[in-house]
Design brief:
The structure holds two protein chains of two kinds.
Chain A: E1 2-7, H1 15-29, E2 33-40, E3 43-45, H2 50-55, E4 58-62, E5 78-81, H3 83-101
Parallel strand pairs in A: 1-2, 1-4, 4-5
Antiparallel strand pairs in A: 2-3
Chain B: E1 9-13, H1 18-31, H2 38-51, E2 55-57, E3 60-61, E4 64-67, E5 74-84, E6 94-103, H3 110-122, H4 125-133, H5 137-148
Parallel strand pairs in B: 1-5, 3-6, 4-6
Antiparallel strand pairs in B: 2-3, 5-6
Helix pairs in contact in B: 1-2
Chain lengths: 103, 153
């Protein structure tokens, strides 16, 4: 399974990166490929490429604040979660996606 | 100059509130000669704290101030003797505090990169455990210097 994700949070200082790291750790643990773009106050880092988005089976977006350039994901299954959930339940989120997509 | 050193680590802070924990650590930063104006710096930390809590969860808080009152990018670390309420995002009390001081004229978003780097590390249980259990100021300094090495210019 391949995933892409974008994390962003109001202050864009800590949670943005905590959520990103948590998702990366959870994905690794479950042998899932993931690319996470962060939209924090440093700006956009690890911007997702079109290839990454195209080959992704699903997209995870944090819902604490608006995500920039969301139209990139049109037509893709999108899961919206809070940054807090990414941090506390990253593993569960990845596992659930695995189940749903059964790949 | 190092971002953190043993003067800036206090493994046994007595504080009964966010403000008092921040004060104790800010005083350390001041003593280390990293500030132009202590009160101005503390005000910048409080202002940021009022925007959104820096209690990021896992019993850790990262209060910070970026202002012209700061001379050098500095990180102070404190372990509280008693956990306190920090209005954390996960509802847990805080026992470990990183106080950051960053100069205004800093190249763009240095403190944000430090916080981002620290945040990423804090997701890892082993890193948090080491912070909880470190027996000496020196251990903490070594741990943090290794982690921040890639971030601070």
């Amino acid at each position: 399974m391949k995933l892409v994700a974008v994390t962003a949070c109001p202050s864009g200082v800590a949670h943005t990166y905590l959520a990103a790291e948590s998702l990366e750790v959870a994905a690794k643990k479950n042998s899932v490929e993931i690319h996470v773009e962060t939209q924090g106050s440093i700006g956009i880092e690890n911007e997702l490429s079109m290839e990454q988005i195209q080959s992704a089976d699903a997209v995870i977006l944090t819902n604490n604040i608006g995500i920039k350039n969301e139209d990139r994901f049109k037509g893709k299954p999108v899961v919206r979660v809070s940054a807090g959930d990414c941090i506390n339940k990253g593993d569960a989120i990845v596992k659930k996606l695995q189940q749903k997509l059964a790949k | 100059m190092q971002v953190i050193n043993e003067e800036l680590v206090d493994l046994a802070i007595d504080a009964d509130s966010k403000m008092s924990a921040i004060s104790v650590l800010a005083e350390r930063i001041n003593q280390a000669g990293r500030l132009y104006d202590h009160a101005g710096y503390v005000a910048s930390v409080v202002e940021r704290e009022n925007l959104t809590t820096t209690g990021i969860g896992f019993g850790i808080a990262i209060p910070h101030g970026k202002s012209s009152h700061v001379k050098e990018t500095t990180v102070a670390f404190g372990r509280l003797n008693n956990k306190i309420d920090w209005q954390s995002l996960d509802g847990e009390n805080v026992g470990l505090v990183f106080l950051l001081a960053v100069p205004e004229e800093c190249q763009g978003d240095q403190h944000l990169k430090i916080i981002a780097g620290l945040s990423r590390k804090l997701v890892h249980q082993e890193f948090r455990d080491t912070l909880e259990q470190a027996a000496s100021d020196q251990e903490i300094v070594e741990l943090l210097n290794d982690s921040l090495a890639g971030v601070v210019a």
